[in-house]
Amino acid sequence: MSKGFYISRSLGLVGVALGAAAMATIMALSMVYHQEKSRGGGGPGTTPPPPSSSSSPSSPPGPQEPWQRYRLPGSLVPLSYNITLWPRLEPDQQGLFIFSGHSAVVFLCLQNTDLILIHSNKLNFTIFQGHWAQLSAPDGAPTPHIQRSWWEEATQYLVLQLRDPLLAGRKYVLQTEFRGELADDLEGLYRSQYTEDGVHKVLAASQMQATYARKVFPCFDEPVMKAVFNVTLIHEPGTVALSNSQEREFVVIVMDGLSVRKTTFDPTERMSTYLLAFLVCSFSFIQQDAGVTIRIWARRDALWAGQGHYALNVTGRILEFYQQYYNTSYPLSKSDQVALPDFHAGAMENWGLVTYRETALLFDPAHSSTSSRQRIATVIAHELAHMAVDDTPSMQLPRPVHDIMDRWILQMGFPLVSINTSSGRISQQHFLLDPGAVVDRPSPFNYTWMVPVQWMKNGVEQQPLWLLEETDVYPSMRTSGQDWVLVNSNVSGYFRVNYDLDNWERLLTLLQTDHQAVPVINRAQILDDAFNLARAGVVGSTLALRTTLYLRHETHFVPWEAALNNLRYYTLMLERSEVQGALQAYLRQQIQPLFHHFQVLTSNWTQVPAGHNDQYNQVNALDVACRVGVARCRSLTSRWFRLWMENPEQNPIHPNLRRTVYCSAIATGGQDEWDFAWKMFQNVTVATEAASLRSALACTKEPWLLNRKWGLHVVTCCFLWTRYLQWTLDRTRIRKQDVASSIQAVARNVVGAPLAWSFIRANWEHMVQTYGQGSFSFSKLITEITARFSTEFELQQLQQFKLANQHLGFGSSGLALDQALERTTANIRWMKENREKVLTWLSHCT
Questions:
Q1: Catalytic residue status for 383
Q2: Is the confidence at residue 135, as pLDDT, over 60?
């Protein structure tokens, strides 16, 4: 499943290369491993040592009854479901949208039990002979009578207590009839709405992950409880019904006096409940046959505008690649992919019916950027990989590789490899970004790894080696004079690297005098390692900053992206302090050569760079230059935006640059620019363009626009609402799927951050009640809003927020909140230790 957002572009580009090379590297180095293992008495054994036998205090007793436990007991396993659902796309007399259905699950009893536990949530059941379900046997044999039935709210079980036990080895059928609300909560079977050609339309879509299938029908809703699903959907004329498998039969019937369509689907593959999917809509589709039927479904006007063609073409190529790479056929009968107007996650890998946000599937060359195109390809590949990999037999790895991989899979984290080039000593330790962190989870390998090390000396690749112990000595790594060593060449290993100060100095000198002597990916690695080592307290913050001095000569995207990703932390920590002016001045100094480079490369911004990475780095040049106050940049973006305002039907800004230009123009502009962007956002029909405008609206530096008051008279009271933030709670203005990202956009603005924090505290109860504790967005929301927290006052506010809302619970954001408290404490310490040092260094460099 793809969430809202992914890895950074630099890490994504690096990750593609590393993913393809990782296994080949380990296999190639396994021979060296055997040589190194025998060297000097051999390495550690391959059998993990037993965990320590230290006693732990006894824990309090857990829930005593099976229905009070959150995991199913395992005495029953489902074999198949027969499910019929009828989602109503018109409200009933009470104004509610509902769905109704009935289900029959065939299950096998593994051990005698007089209890049936099956998940159910927010369903109203038809009563059969005084109970909420009927029990029978497939062969018509007698079955135990139900003694009593009830719903256990805390654990979301429909509980059936039987008079006599079910017998091990026997099959049974549990039948239910039910109704539920077709709500707009983006969970289970839910309602989505959109406008097409001036007509308001409603569709029913589904999202079962993580535990929302139980909102649709009673089921054994745990991933291991796999079954075959036989699905029938009832839907009104003029709509189409889709599910995981192919349509088998379509008939017109009369139900409740209404003429409706009944679509029956082939049985699914055996799969988990969270992969089940349903869709009833009036979408259209485009189709391609690449050995398997591929269809892209979306709003009709989006497909008529050609927004589905890129996804259709790339899907066929991805499926072909997977079939060749894994030497296996696509396991399903079709590949339907659907762009939904309202969808909580980025995408969901439902087998045979993959669902997406529109921004993750639809591409319009006139409005969508290169990064949008790459994201669409990445997301489609990610989702389809679930089907390719899930159906692929497990690889049987050679024993040495198995021994190596255990160290990387069965213990958390990764190592920091340190090299002393004066002695040739190389060592490893568990890398911890927070130097104050306490590791309380034991490792069977004592947090040591079998580390494959590729390295170069003076630009020449050396014989690879293995670090098998906590420390070792390699005389070949000793240097003299101006010799330099670079470890993890081409970033072939997954670890951080630190050097003795003399080697650091030689690398820093090399970067400033002949940076191309270092491979481009290693230039990014040096930057990334240095900044993360500084965060961890291993090296000084000024050493990390010195790795950026050479950037005046750098034009490649990957090192710049690595630098900017890491400098973001410095900006977050320092932009509210006296250091901000010096930091801005330094960044202006470093970015102007890159800005000029792209001005020349694009013939004064009239052409698009030919290279994919150059297109990304052009965005970096423009974004940073405008943010740090390069006058030429701000003038350029304001002029482009003003031209668009004068002729709204003709946008002169290239799609690659729009998000950056919109943000810059709104940040330096005023109410006119903000109101124009809002108007365009309201009328836009391309999802990626809407996302760019919605994000840019949060870029204003005018607090009164983020916090603009307007009156609403209710009875005799006038309630003052914040403008943009409050509109996130208005479904007619901001879609529910976009609420969290809109608030996060405000929080990324240094002016908007305190407003977003106040808004969240004031509306937390409402948001929990509206979105539920399981919302994927809450954790990201907490993380983004608290990213700048670095004072004792903010730490106290965060602690008070946790205490004040304990009664509501934090659900999926609980861990994020605890991490925010830890991170704030670490940030406070970092500021105390580094603020003055950074200010002094920056002052000397500008």
A1: yes
A2: yes
